[in-house]
Amino acid sequence: MNEIAATGISVLLVDDHPIVRQGYRRVLESQGDLHVVAEADNAADAYSAFKARDPDVVVLDISMPGASGLEAIRNIRARSPRARILVFTMHNEAVLVKAAFSAGASGFVTKSSEPSAVVAAIRSVARGERAMSDDIAHILAEDSLSAGSALDQLGEREIEILRQFAGGATTEQIAAHLNLSVKTVQNYHYLIKTKTGARTDAQLVRLAATCGLTRI
Amino acid sequence: MNEIAATGISVLLVDDHPIVRQGYRRVLESQGDLHVVAEADNAADAYSAFKARDPDVVVLDISMPGASGLEAIRNIRARSPRARILVFTMHNEAVLVKAAFSAGASGFVTKSSEPSAVVAAIRSVARGERAMSDDIAHILAEDSLSAGSALDQLGEREIEILRQFAGGATTEQIAAHLNLSVKTVQNYHYLIKTKTGARTDAQLVRLAATCGLTRI
DNA sequence: GGCAGCTCGGGCAAATTTCCCAAGCCGGAT
DNA sequence: ATCCGGCTTGGGAAATTTGCCCGAGCTGCC
């Protein structure tokens, strides 16, 4: 069994920027009870490092090139349900946060957070608690009040139109393709925006991309 | 005159993430000859900190919220042509690199670089030399050979507006942010579309994403 | 000096967006 | 059976934006 109180907390650092990792390592190790036992710069290495060192907490940035960080979370959790994973990234969109938690993350902290908040989150996660930084809590709270900004509240037609739109199709092209009037497509477009809470077409495209509806 | 060899190199750190700054600070200070004399988390503070401490080198991330980092470079260089600025960011798009250098940066290093390469770049820049990481040199080399991407035909202002737009900002937000009239931003928006050949806002977002201008 | 290119914005017709509304259809609840 | 609610399809009208033209200031370059 783990003797965390006696031995401190072992941490696996996953981030694709070497100097960022080294900086974090120094910040964490200056705490005394936190020990970085391994590092990785991609999703695949993250899992092998996890297997090899069995750290108490995995601190990882989801925005890595190549395989998604979400993939890494799912990967680790699928094989080691005991794993505690703290997402540490600069992104702060509600969809991403929810995706991370449902992929199995135990915590979500933005890089805008104070170092003290980050180490506090690591300790919480190590104790098996859920942790998130204040800004993330705020964003999730707003999101839950705004009747949802995810796309699981969209109908099939709406999804299809959003996919084509985010793929770069014009309103006319979509209308022709689906045998609808331009007016109807315009109405869907508006409906999708209000349903998802996107204020801008660009936000819509980003939403579609982050939800895996379109690839870019 | 500066007695760098005797006193070491003083550094101003500019990055909007506190823990990232703290990490860098520790990495740099462990070198012995590098001293972080000030930090800033936005373009405005960066210049006042520069005035107050007159550091040998400014290490800054261009991707800060609010005013562009390019703006900050221009700002500092306009008032203190002696300033040495090392851009240190995760972006690695040729357009951005060229924009940074023409704004007055002395060096450009990506966060993918080894810490040793970063500190080497700081020392080079302090000596008045130009510095860039290997991956940046590679990208610039490729770029000079290729016929040029769609973004190459855009001016700096256009790039900045495209970045913010593709990031999800509304026209009003961009205008407020850059102190422009809404009409001017609309005109730039239209200009960018015609220059790049994008027929749709969604296509514009995709273009910005594939060129690395924005991350999704 | 002159030309070219970037930046900044006005103007105005045409197009789109933003809402509100109605009607048909269908599945589930009463 | 009936009613409710949600999806799909579109009309309408006001508000906004787009598309494109223009001029003016500024810089850098020949």
Structure description:
- Two copies of one chain form a homodimer.
- By secondary structure, the first copy, chain A, is of the alpha/beta class.
- The first copy, chain A, is built from eleven helices and six strands.
- Chain A has helices at residues 4-7, 18-29, 43-53, 69-79, 94-103, 115-126, 134-145, 156-166, 171-178, 182-196, 201-210; strands at residues 9-14, 34-40, 57-60, 85-89, 107-110, 131-132.
- The first copy, chain A, has a six-stranded parallel beta sheet, with helices on both faces.
- In chain A, strand 1 (9-14), helix 2 and strand 2 (34-40) form a beta-alpha-beta unit.
- Chain A is elongated.
- The interface between A and B is large, with 37 and 37 residues.
- Chain A binds a DNA duplex (30 and 30 nucleotides) through helix 8 and helix 10.
**Which strand-content bin applies to the residues of chain A?**
5-15%
Residue-averaged pLDDT of chain A, rounded? Answer: 84
User: Helical residue percent of chain A?
Assistant: 40-55%
Q: Please tell me the total number of domains of chain A.
A: 2
Oligomer: homodimer
Largest protein interface, residues of each chain: A-B, 37 and 37 residues
Radius of gyration of chain A: 20 Å
Using the coordinates above, name the CATH class of the largest domain in chain A.
Answer: Alpha Beta
Number of helices of chain A: 11
CATH architecture of the largest domain in chain A: 3-Layer(aba) Sandwich
Say how many strands of chain A there are.
6
Termini separation of chain A comes to 45 Å
